[in-house]
Amino acid sequence: MVLSDIDIANSVTMEPISTVASRLGIDDDVLCHYGKYKAKIDARQLVSLKDKPDGKLILVTAISPTPAGEGKTTTSVGLVDALTAIGKKAVIALREPSLGPVFGIKGGAAGGGYAQVVPMEDINLHFTGDFHAIGVANNLLAALIDNHIHQGNALGIDSRRITWKRVVDMNDRQLRHIVNGLQGKVNGVPREDGYDITVASEIMAILCLSENITDLKARLEKIIIGYNYQGEPVTAKDLKAGGAMAALLKDAVHPNLVQTLEHTPAFIHGGPFANIAHGCNSVLATKLALKYGDYAVTEAGFGADLGAEKFIDIKCRMSGLRPSVVVLVATIRALKMHGGVAKADLGTENVQAVIDGLPNLDKHLENIQEVYGLPAVVAINKFPLDTDAELQAVYDACAKRGVDVVISDVWARGGEGGHELAEKVVALAEQDNHFSFVYDDEDSIETKLRKIVTKVYGGEDISLTPAAKREMAELERLGFGNYPICMAKTQYSFSDDAKKLGAPKDFTVTIRHLKVSAGAGFIVALTGDIMTMPGLPKVPASEKIDIDKEGTITGLF
Question: What distances in angstroms separate CA 121 from CA 19, 33, 118, 549, one per listed residue?
């Protein structure tokens, strides 16, 4: 019988979190326990560790995702366990899962098989309440905006130009566009509004990019909630909201410590999506991992054109972090889908389809090596029906770029199945690299957009809608032209059309809207038909999730 991920997780005896922490030299008095197996670590530890040298940062990313799955988190967890198994002091830093995908189409996000972080039920559900705190802080600001207008609107907020939305951590398409404040004056001022999913909130991005609670509060106060009748921005500071929001986030700002199935320490903190946000775990968690480990494994969401680009151009630019090596995860199944094979036919050997799908992998490698300037290794997440001929096609293609391909069998064997990958990562991490950003700070907004599309996506050009052109001019007038860009784009294609698989050419990316996240410190560019509130699929994953009288959860991935 094949065990499910949750069955495997429940079959392993976890160590008390104090034991996991002590392995890193973390004293129990800097932990805030959330039960026996998870805790928050005081982020102020970074101050006492400032003179300790950083370890090597390993970034795990992937080819463009497909419904066949790539297993990026599974590979990340297996890699950190493998590094530990070969005698290295290693730590992993990951994002927290959003309830939207957990109950929607993707399922859990704690790894899989014998390469998981645990307790997986807690991590995939409410965990330590960080997302709740972010949602409440977000919605407090929304309530303050409407209350201010109701109470006389001393700031002259133009209700037609409010950009701040409420959030909920669930896929709920019904809330994308709403009208509120109806049924009389006592219920507020009627206006059009809408909800985003919590992971798309600017507060999520702020939490993940903040260096400490002081920085967090300063960033919260910079949030632009909309514009007044004179066209000038109105901020959270104008509404005197920064202090209260920061108070709600006082615990959420501290990273969470858990463990892998093999008891390797794992920091899990923050969870912005990579298609509509910047897609990386918190700067604080990553920096703690680098201080406590000689090797810190982290991942960026979706493909190397989305999460990895934002990791480089947003997270690294703001924090000073620099990866030493990149692991590019791929599967034979996903390559065949990029080569035109339907999901139902993936079990049949099709070497030509692999070859036809390889341009997607090659373009991602080109970006990693030539655009980001980093050494790379390809990790093939192993599936039972992969054939030697199909694998050979990948070896041959990567050899042309001087990139090694390693078979990762961590789903079935845990850290033992990732020894070769770990050894390769250690060797590559010692090499010199030529780390570089995709664009320069002083580039105009339009130039930054064009460089991302042409250099990273392989597109021909950008097209700005009239609305986007007006917004770009306004953002530059307001002094935000030097901000980095956070592209909101489909994860399934280099283009803004999810149906264009592989490595399409001669396409133009349409920029629909541009808005500033002044607290986070970047400009969000909405492309194609990307949405900041997903919907549930026809058969949601929630239908398989249950709990028995003993409190045992089933069906959770």
Answer: 21, 17, 8, 16
Catalytic residue among 103, 411, 507, 557: 411
Query: Annotated catalytic residue: which of 106, 219, 222, 315?
Result: 106
End-to-end CA distance of the chain: 16
Catalytic: which of 103, 131, 383, 437?
Answer: 383
Q: Rounded to an integer, what distance in angstroms lies between the CA atom of residue 472 and that of residue 464?
A: 9
Average pLDDT over the chain, rounded to an integer: 94
166 is catalytic: no
How far apart CA 475 and CA 139 sit, in angstroms, is 25
Catalytic residue of the set 74, 235, 264, 286: 74
Q: Is 383 a catalytic residue?
A: yes
413 catalytic? Reply is: no
**Mutual angle of helices 213-221 and 202-209, in 10-degree steps:** 150
Q: How far is residue 168's CA from residue 199's CA, in Å, rounded to a whole number?
A: 9
Among residues 40, 95, 219, 222, the one annotated as catalytic is 95
The tally of CA atoms less than 13 A away on the side-chain side of residue 328 is 27
Query: What would the pLDDT profile of 131-167 be if each residue is shown by its tens digit?
Result: 999 999 999 999 999 999 999 999 999 999 999 999 9
Least Cα distance to 468 among 514, 430, 506 occurs for 514
Instruction: Give per-residue pLDDT as tens, 215-258.
Output: 999 999 999 999 999 999 999 999 999 999 999 999 999 999 99
The answer to whether residues 169 and 233 touch, using CB atoms and an 8 Å cutoff, is: no
Does pLDDT of 108 surpass 70? no
Instruction: Find the DSSP H helices in 443-557.
Output: 445-451, 466-477
Active site residue 164: no
User: Quick check: is 454 catalytic?
Assistant: no
